[in-house]
Amino acid sequence: MSAKRSSINRPPTPDVDRDRENQEPTLQEIINIKMIESGEKERLKELLRERLIECGWRDEMKSLCRKKGRNNVTVDDLVHVITPKGRASVPDPVKAELLQRIRSFLASTAT
Amino acid sequence: MSLPNDDNMSAHSQLSSHFFEDLLDSIIVDVASECHRVARLGLDRNFEEEEEELRLSAQARARVADSSNNGETNSKYVVDIFGQTHPAVANEIFECMNCGRSIVAGRFAPHLEKCMGKGRKARLKVTRSATAAQNRYTRGSPGSSYSSYSNSTGMNRLSNGASSGVAGEEYSNGSFEEL
Q1: What is the DSSP annotation of B91-110?
Q2: CA B129 – CA B144 distance, rounded (Å)
Q3: For A80-93, how does the pLDDT look when each residue is reduced to its tens digit (9 = 90+)?
Q4: CB-CB contact of A49 with B27 (8 Å)
Q5: Counting Cβ atoms within 10 Å, is residue B40 exposed (0-12), middle (13-18) or buried (19+)?
Q6: Domain ranges across chain B
Q7: Which alpha helices (DSSP H) does B9-148 contain, by range?
Q8: Exposure b/e, A29-63, CB count within 10 A at least 16 = b
């Protein structure tokens, strides 16, 4: 993946030239689809969102955004501002809880 | 960030971490998007207040660094960390929840003592009334005059100085009794 600034977390666009896309999807993709279809992904996201609000993480991120100022900010700017600190400052218990849930899900849908 | 049994389940753990990061990134984008919206629409009413507070705290810091406030006292008034002064007697006015009168905050404690029953007169007042909270009585007191009001909403004004602790009291049914 090239180091373009425009996006840091968008997955690479599937390339039609690559054969792989027509062959079996990866385990990751399979699980991702299962997670979405069963609604678990949405539940996990809501759980994570709730925990991050409770522990004040969201407020920290918002105040970081405010510091950036109000003039001509773009969403990408703000994403870049928040992401390093955001990823690093998730409290351990929150992360542990989510990982635990995800692992249970993986175990329950083990192929 | 190391998890126990990481070696045994490294594939699973990697997968879990991947999904976690995925969820987290998604939430980060949500937060950024909302902040972007607030910033562009000028919805953040607190934004100017924050700048104001930052300015005030910088000011206060400068004032502290400045030696004009020796030992924090300045004649009669003490200057606090925000540079505000406070009068000796707090001068906000509240309504007493017991009798409904308007009381100056600085005189609230003595008022409550009398109103709620520490003193002799207040205790008499309570025991003589069946519905003490509802009814009002005027109290005679040596040397002070009182006046009575009729009022449908129950809000009172003290006619005498509050420092004496005695004043005309309000009554809802229009009758009064002298102690």
Answers
A1: --EEE-TTT-BEEEGGGHHH
A2: 23
A3: 989 999 999 999 99
A4: yes
A5: middle
A6: 9-63, 82-119
A7: 10-41, 46-65, 108-116, 120-128
A8: eebbebbeeeebbeebbeebbebbeeeebbebbbe
Whole-angstrom CA distances from B110 to A23, B86, B89, B144 are 85, 20, 13, 18
| Stretch 22-41 of chain A: residues touching chain B, C-beta under 8 Å | 27-28, 31-32, 35, 41
* pLDDT tens column, B26-47: 999 999 999 999 888 887 776 6
Q: Which chain B positions have a beta carbon within 8 Å of A70's beta carbon?
A: 39-40, 42, 47
Beta-bridge partners for B36: none
Return the bridge partners of B104, or none. B93
What's the predicted TM-score (pTM) here? 0.48
Looking at CA atoms only, how far is residue B101 from chain A in angstroms?
Answer: 41
Give the Å distances, CA to CA, from A28 to A34, A102, B19, B105, B109.
10, 13, 9, 66, 68
- Is A48 an interface residue toward B (CB < 8 Å)? yes
Structure token digits, residue B41: 């629409």
ipTM of the complex: 0.78
pLDDT, position B77: 62
The angle at the Cα of A13, spanning A12 to A17, to the nearest 5 degrees, equals 115
Biggest alpha carbon–alpha carbon distance for chain A: 50
What's the pLDDT tens digit per position in A6-27? 667 777 777 665 555 567 888 8
